[in-house]
Amino acid sequence: MGPPGAGKGTQAKVLADRLGIPAVSTGDIFRANVKDETPLGLEAKRYMDAGNYVPDEVTNAMVRDRLSEADAGEGFLLDGYPRTLPQVGTLDAILAEHGHSLDAVVALVADTDVLVDRMLRRAKVDGRTDDSEEVIRHRQVVYAAETKPLLRVYAQRNQLVEVDGVGEVEEVSERVLTALKTLEG
Ligand code: AMP
User: Fold this and answer.
1) What is d(CA 109, CA 3) in angstroms, rounded to the nearest whole number?
2) Would you list the domain boundaries of the chain?
3) Are strands 23-25 and 77-79 parallel, antiparallel or unpaired?
4) Residues with CB under 6 A from ligand 1
5) Cβ–Cβ contacts within 10 Å for residue 4, how many?
6) What is the CATH number of domain 8-169?
7) What is the pLDDT of residue 129?
C-alpha cells in the first residue's frame, strides 16, 4: 500500500520476483483490459481517467477470479488491492475460502506533496496529457479518504509494516525485505 506515485508497482515486481510468487496488480489488470477494449476495460476506464476508484463489486469480482488461478496457489503479492474497507472484507473472505492467510501488509511511506511535484514534473517532461494536474491531485485525495484508513485496520491486526519509500529501487526493496524478516521473527 502507499499513495499514488510512491513506487508500489515497481516494488511489487521486484519483491514478487525475489519471493518467487506472482505480483497481482489490479491497476495492471485494469490497464490491460482498457488496452484490449474488453467490457471490463470500457467500464473501468471512466473511473480511472477521472482518478477515481473502480467500483468495489467490479474490482472484487476481478480479484476473486485472478486469485483462483493456479499460479496463486502457493502465495501472491497484491499491488494496489485492497484500497477500500469493503475490499478488505472481500480479501478476508477469499483468503479464508482458499485456506490462506495474510502474512503482511507493506506500506510505502512518502510525502504526498513531494510525490505530486515529481509526477507533475514527469508529466511535463514526458509530454503526457492523459494525467492532468487536477487528476494527479485528485488521486491523492481519494487515497487519503478511502485507502489511508486501511493502514490502521492492518496495524491493529499487527500485520502492518511501514517502510520509507524514498530512495533508489534497490534500497527500498532491501528495506522491505528486512522489515518483513522482523515481522517473521
Ligand atoms: P494503480 O496503477 O494501482 O494506481 O491503479 C490505476 C487505477 O486503477 C486506479 O487509479 C483506480 O482507478 C484503478 N484501481 C486499481 N486498483 C484498484 C482497487 N483496488 N480498487 C478500485 N480501483 C482500483
Assistant:
1) 8
2) 8-169
3) parallel
4) 4, 26-27, 30, 47-48, 53-54, 59, 80-81, 83, 87, 139
5) 21
6) 3.40.50.300
7) 66
Cell of 29: 489488470
CA of 171 to the centre of ligand 1 (A): 25
Catalytic residue among 18, 35, 118, 122: 122
* Residue 128 annotated in active site: yes
The string of pLDDT tens digits covering residues 119-175 is: 998 888 887 766 889 999 999 999 999 999 999 999 999 999 999 999 999 999 999
Transcribe 115-180 into DSSP letters: HHHHHHHHHHHTT--SS-HHHHHHHHHHIIIIIHHHHHHHHHTT-EEEEE--S-HHHHHHHHHHHH
26 alpha carbon to ligand 1 midpoint, in Å?
6
Q: Supply the pTM of this predicted model.
A: 0.94
CA atoms within a 13 Å half-sphere pointing along the CA-CB vector of 17: 8
The reply to whether 139 belongs to the active site is: yes
Give yes or no for a contact between 41 and 52, defined as CB atoms under 8 angstroms apart.
no
**φ/ψ of residue 6, rounded to 5:** -80, -10
119 by Cβ neighbours in 10 Å (0-12 / 13-18 / 19+) ranks as buried
Cell (9 digits) for 172: 527500498
